Amino acid sequence: MDKYSEIRVPIAHDNPSIKRRESKCVLCGKCKDVCKKKIGVAGYWTYDSEDIVCINCGQCANVCPVESIVEQDDTQLLLDAIKDENKIVILMTSPAVRVSLGEAFDLPMGEFVAGKMVSSLKKLGANYVFDVTTGADLTIMEEASELIDRIQNGKTLPQFTSCCPAWVKFVETFYPQYIPNLSSCKSPISMLSSMVKNYFANEKNIDPKNIYLVAVTPCVAKKFEIKRPELSEFYGRDTDLVITAREMARLLKKQKINLKAQKDSEFDEFFPTGSGAGVIFGTSGGVMEAAVRTAYYMTTGENPPKDLLHFKKLRGYTDIKTAKVNLCGKEVKLCVIFGTNAARSVLDKLKTKNYDMIEVMACPNGCVGGGGQPKQYDNDTAVTKRGDALYNADENMSVKSCHENESIQRVYQNFLTSPLSDKAKKYLHTTYVKR
Question: In the chain, is it the N or the C terminus that has fewer CB atoms within a 10 Å radius of its CB?
């Protein structure tokens, strides 16, 4: 038992996401405050000396004013892999990193630095740099199909999104009765990882065991997610390593790579930038909006109208948002939430308030406010500007919806055949456990 547990959150020594540097702690209590009021974990369980509950979101690290709580630093593992001549090192970057990484190099909050980021990662030593927005597009192809199947065939509703590993663990821990509501889809990172090691490796005649796959994320919970045994079915883990945006910024500086000074480069062509829908995955409401765009197409054969390409009711810095849309010949009720404590208020009323799909992200405004993002004194402004930058990128992209992504179309044509096929379920779907 942490002797200061009345003041601060306890952190297990084997926590894969975060750690506490004891000498720096000033017992300010901010970590426990955010964990209780925003995340809804602290104060919601009883524990003994061996039982510490954590959903690995890392918000305690984000609010720690003295850098006592920090992410587990895995950058040396990446450097070791780069130095290994037998390894093909592939870095793949999440949508929210491209609107935050520049802040660590004195660029404005929300500056879109995708091209400079790719150049920096190549200079670091990556053999390939892929875009996780392609994995997001793949996720929506499966998740939208799953939603339609649940609605049309009377299966368990509402369907919960499964992209946020902290939210998934929250359900597994506090609301295990709702595990059947979680989408069986892997997260975008895990989906793309599976395709890299099974499809890309085969197409390029590469032994998957030689691939070292690193996700660059806004999220410390991904460090927990990649170690789930359910995501280690093929060639070891789907994803070998997670490096947060904060870690990557420190590593680039250590290697004397100034992101700000780099020229723009493109993601490697096998899994290049995905659709605008994949890009907005990084902000609260983006997953739901992406799913609606493609579900509309799947049920009508037509691309969505303008109001569904800018779904105003799903946007904005509000922790609970609701909307309705006509799909599958019925009115479908949607709910978007950030902050797992806010999710509690919805889950506790599910029997009286019916929804068809619920998106939850643990962190403020979604991944843009992730526990591994560059820290900002004015975090509300930062996460708003980062989210706005993702929506602006979507506005300027010609491919708006996941089903329009040609690289995803090729994956289905050449490997998966169709959404929810036996192969798709084998490589792109997963299971959950009661904790």
Answer: N
